[in-house]
Structures are given as structure tokens and as C-alpha cells.
């Protein structure tokens, strides 16, 4: 590789790049199934090789849809009517141009697409393997991958090394990782969908520099979709504006177009640089007033604390499912430490800080969606007791606080679903999670109906909110068919419509044009005027200017505070509500990011002085420079736990260093051995030998009972059913059957837990020489199993805050389980579809399934696959254990049988 004078070496995968790609779009029209009107309508666009084009337009105008069409993945997983033609270098299949030799062609892909939601692009369990995915599909030699991966991650200012878990990233960090996965391939046509929308200013600037360097070094054609134009315009050669009907309303040289069409573009909602910033739309406070419960009980007065956090800390327990091997298994990662804040009625509190600082984690605590590992979050506002929890006169529980209720009732994280929904509205960073109904109007109305609000009043409020937020024409649409910006507005309307006392919003203005920003900001301000306590986690400086208080987080600690009103006096709580009280640890939402920098390295919250700022202004540059935690990145090929050097040795618990093929074979041997268990004697001896050998093979420190619970339940169920259905209801028959199941299920589950999806793909492809495409598809699907528990918890939180969680009756719980299972299935299918699009955009579609006439595409692998001495030892040991029941039965079965 040779470095170009305008960019780092990683930006020039091959010095023989002649140019970027020519693009020709003719009459492109797309109407997805379920939508009455097309998203794109007869669109024509021609882009010359090497151009840098910025596409903007109102929310829902089809910008993201256009990029998917240019990448050739529109309609891959969604159904609809598509017409027109998209040509890259005159070829509808986006092939390589003539003149590039085979080596250069193998080093690049014609089109690279960054999706709007970066989580959809994650296909491997570690950062290094995820970044290498595109290079593997292109057949890049393994020896060249390491340096390119490390340099690309460094160029986008990614804060962790290649062995960091890809599932433990914030939205902004996932966005940078997804961008690195695109840029590392050196595509000739780079398509970026809002690549800096979730980033803090410093990280966004680094990402833009990486994009410019890549385009300059390779000569790639660059097309960027963005709402915020100012930072992109200095190096953009052309501006294209889409209208609300999916047609092009402006197209030309960026500076000329902005001057000639300035007023028209501003009226269309474009963020025209130099224009006066938009002001919040005038929205009636009545649309956000407190609901019936707050009106019936003591209402919060302006300036009253509603919820308070005292010295809260959150420690995330790393997942112990697929992909968490070796010493990282079960490691605890600090997210927040000693964070305190008061959220006050009639005020907006902004939580700011760099990506991965813990903003989403903290707002989730304030919303009662999870409990802290240490410290306490308490509700100190009015209306703590709901109608169902009223106590008889004179009855007062022990430990009653100042509000007249028990302290347990003042922890929002312990409230029932109904009680939480009556008081809290929440918009997650991923707005799609907040959707609970099949149409936009039903979704917004849902919580009000569940809480028993007057239906006419609720419908009037919902219709008014939809009108304010520009969603009236979409009221009957399926929310899942909407754009990202439209989904955020639907989620906001659903969080406000039932009149909560606390409104918690996580990045509510990402992906919005000027008009929709004004509408969203208007609702936020109206909520404040209605006496609602509002919390926003945001990078948006205009939204921060509306705040009354600002809390800045870095590395999980408060490093700065600002207020329009001066310092807030420290709250005093009764003994039973002291900050030393701890509650059970819960996994934080997906937006949560564990930082690998210890929070103890930062000064505590109490040492941060509170600054004041006048109304209507927000000083800039008053906080410390944003820094992200760093981790040294290797410069060679990424190698995680389980590589040849580590597996060659022998020690107790050595199975965690064995390859996936031997682990799978070991489980199969135990299954075959269980077939020979026909008597209680064989079962007992087999289990005794199994327990004796277990410390040698398994890492007992990593075993978690919850992982064994399904297997134990299966063994108990088989034992019970065998006993019940046997002719004489033989207890020995039941115990034998149960032990037979336990003999192979429990150790099989533990062995399978050591299998990493990427490692499994390596071994199936390299050792067994299976076709690459089905192998990678299977391992990518297996990777998603490790996130099912997290997705389940996300769905539980959404339903809890929307009032949909089950009651205590078995029937209600069974119904809730079925509902969550169906929702998880739907979400998994939708995520799999988006993931397939992301994989195809990174070269996966180039792999061919072999036939009699053709061979598979020459895919390479970032890590080698070996069969080591440890794998052989594992099979020998497990084979010995599996043979014990058969051997014992043939030699001593009759003797022990006579005893029993």
C-alpha cells in the first residue's frame, strides 16, 4: 500500500485505482407494499466519476431509499413496486470497469453503503472481525488485512481495539464501526446515510476527515445523505435536494444552488448554512398537560423535584453466551459511577457528552427502565400512589418517606407497568423499539386507552399531536414502513399523548429537517410549559440551548453542570433512602456503552461546580475537551482467544481454547453415549465420571446456573413424564430417563457456549471446505442468538413504560409471554432483513454457491482455522466419558441390576 498525499495509507487499498464510478439513474420509482404513494417518483440522476454529492431534503422524502437503490439492495428484503434503472459504469450489475487487473479488482468493491441504523451492519462478535467482513468477501489476502483494519479504525477515531465486543457499543461507536467496515474495502462508489448523526462534534469531525481522505486517495465517487449541511459543504461539489414527493427539486453546484435557491430551500426544510436557526413551533401546553392521575392527586408544581438520582452507578455484566470466551467471560464493566442529578418539574434537563459517555444508561435509570447497581433513583414528585395502591386510612407502612409513601414505592425501577406508564413517557434512541401497534394513530393512542383515559379527549389530543408533528397523512400507515425521522416523531407523540409527569427523550432530533425539528422542539417546550419534567440526551446544540439545566457526562461520571437558576440545593432523604442503598443489577439498554476506562480515574460529581448561564444563551467551549477511552490496537491480523498458540497448551478448563468442530463433535459423542444408558446403574456411573472429568475440560468459574436452567428443566420434565407414564410408575425408570437427558444436554450446552460464530465459520469454511455463502449466512444468524436476551429485555422495557406489561395472574403472564415472543420473532425477522441488506452492501452478494459447473468465490478468512492437539485431547476425553455407560453396562450391568 502507498499513502496518498491527501490521506492516510489505509485509504489507498491499491495504487492502481483509475477513478471512481459513473452513476446513471433513469426513471427510478419505488412504492413499498403498504404505502399508498411512492417514496421515489420518476427520479433521474447522473453522477460523474469522482464527484462528491450531498443529498438532502425533508424527512420521509426518500433519501435513504435512494441510497439503497444505488447500492442495488432495494427490494432485497422488502416488497414493493420498483421500476426504472440504476447503472454503475453502464452496468446494472455494478461490475468492475475495464482496465483494472484482477489483483486490483479483488481489493475493491464497486459500491459501499453505510446504512442509517449502524447496528444493522454488525455481523461479527468482535470489532476486528466485523471490520474484516468486507475484505474477506473480496478475497483480500489475510496478511494485508491487519494493517488496513487498524488504520481504518484509527482514521474514524474508533476508541477500542480489534478484540472489543461489537455488541457493547453505543450508537455513536457503532456508527463509526459501520463506517470503518465500508471504508476499509476501498469502494469506488461510497454511499453514506447520515454518517455523523449520532456523534459528538469531535468524533463527527474525525469521521468526515476519514471520508474525505478515502475519497481523495482512491478517487471514489462520494454520495452523502445529510440534514446538517454546513460541515460537509466546503468539500462537496454538488447539492441535490429531494422534495416531499420523492422527486428532485434542486440539483447543481453546491454554492450556486444555495445562493440561487436559498429561500426556497429554507421553506422546504433544508438546513441552509447561514440561515437563522429555527425556533420551536408554538404548541399548546394543553397537549402535554399531566394526565388524569396527576390531576386527581397532588400535582407537581413548577420547580419541584420529580425524580432524583443519588450517587448512582451501573456495572454491566458481560454476556456469557456465544462470542464471550476466555478471560472476558462474565467480566463486569463500569458504565456509570457516582452520578447525581435532580430532575425538576417545568424544566428541561439536557444530558450531554461524547459518544459512549453513559447518557442513554443514565436516562434509562431516570425513566425507571432499569435499576442502578449502586446508589438510588427515587421519585420525589407528586402522585406516587396510583388508584390500585391506595391504602386504608391510618395504614402507613414502615419507612414512609416525606411524600407519604413507602420507600419501595418511590423507586421507579420497581413500579408496576401501569404505575410507570401513568407518570413516565420515553423515547429510546432506536425509535422503532417504541412501536407497539399496527398503525401510527393506534400506536400513539395505545397508552391512553390502557390507562383508561376518556376516549374522546384522548383521541382529540392524539389527532392534535399528529397534526403538530406532521403525521396526519400517515395516521393509517404501518409505523414500520416509515423513515427514521418519521419514526422518531411517532415515538415522541406516543410518549406525550397520555400526559406523563416525566418525559425522557434519547436523541429526539436525529435525522430531522428544519420543519420537523421545529415541531419536535415545540412539543418539548410545550411539555415544559405544562409542568412536565423533561430530560433529553442529545448532541444537538440547538436543543441544548432550550435547556434549563445541563449535565455533562464523560466516562460515566459528571464532569460539568450548568443551570439558568444557579446551584441546586442538595436533597436530603430519610435514612431508608440513603444513597448507600443498592438494588439488583439489570442489563442496560442497547444504546448503553461500556467504556473500558475506569470511572475512578475521573473526579467525582461533587467536585464539579455548577455554572450559570442567562436565559436564551448557551456558552460553548466551557466544558473539558471531549475524549474517548482508548485501547491499543494491534497492527497485524486480529486474533482473539482460541487461536493456535493459545490452544496448543493443556490446562484445566482447556475446552474454552478448543475449536468449534471438536466442541460440536464432543456434544455429539455424549449424545451417542446417552443412547446406551438403559439402567439406573449405567446412569449413575456415567454421571459420576462426567462430574469427575468436568473440572479438567470445563472452566467451572464461568458456569452460570441460568445457562443450565433449560437443560435441568428438560431433564426434570422427562423424568417426571417417564415416571408418570410407565406401567408401574417406576421411580427408577423416571430417574434413569432424567439422568440420560442430563448426561448429554448439560455438558453439551456448556461446550456449545465456547463456540464463537466467526470461529465456527472459519473452521467450516477452511477445514471442511463448505461453500462460503451458506456458511457465512449461518454464522451471521448464529451471532444474532447472542442478542436475543437483550432484545427481549428491550421489548419488556418498552411494554412496561407503555403500560403493556403483564399483571400477576398466571393467565396474564402467559399472555404477556406469548405477546413478547411474537414481538421478538417479528423484530428478529425485520432485523435479519436489514442485516442481509448490510451484508450484501459489503460484498456478501458477490459470493456464489458452487454448482457442478462453477466453484465458489475465492473468499479469504481474517483468522486461520487449525485442528490442534487440544482438539484431539478433547475428543479423547469426551469419547472416554461417552463410552462409560456402554462399557459398564456390558461388564457390570447384571450385577448392579440385581442389587437394585
TrEMBL record:
EC number: 3.6.3.-
Domain ABC transporter: 23-269, 314-580
Keywords: ATP-binding, Hydrolase, Membrane, Nucleotide-binding, Transmembrane, Transmembrane helix, Transport
Topology versus the membrane: Multi-pass membrane protein
Entry GO MF terms: ATP binding; hydrolase activity
SMART domains assigned: AAA
Subcellular localization: Membrane
Main localization, broad class: membrane
Compositionally biased residues, Low complexity: 567-626, 634-643
Enzyme type, top EC level: hydrolase
Disordered, as annotated region: 386-415, 562-644
Bilayer-crossing regions: 663-696, 708-725, 731-755, 873-891
Family matches, as InterPro entries: AAA+_ATPase (IPR003593), ABC/ECF_trnsptr_transmembrane (IPR003339), ABC_transporter-like_ATP-bd (IPR003439), ABC_transporter-like_CS (IPR017871), ABC_transpr_CbiO/EcfA_su (IPR015856), ECF_ABC_transporter_ATP-bd (IPR050095), P-loop_NTPase (IPR027417)
Alphabetical list of Pfam families matching this protein: ABC_tran, CbiQ
UniProt record similarity statement: Belongs to the ABC transporter superfamily.
Protein name: Energy-coupling factor transport system ATP-binding protein
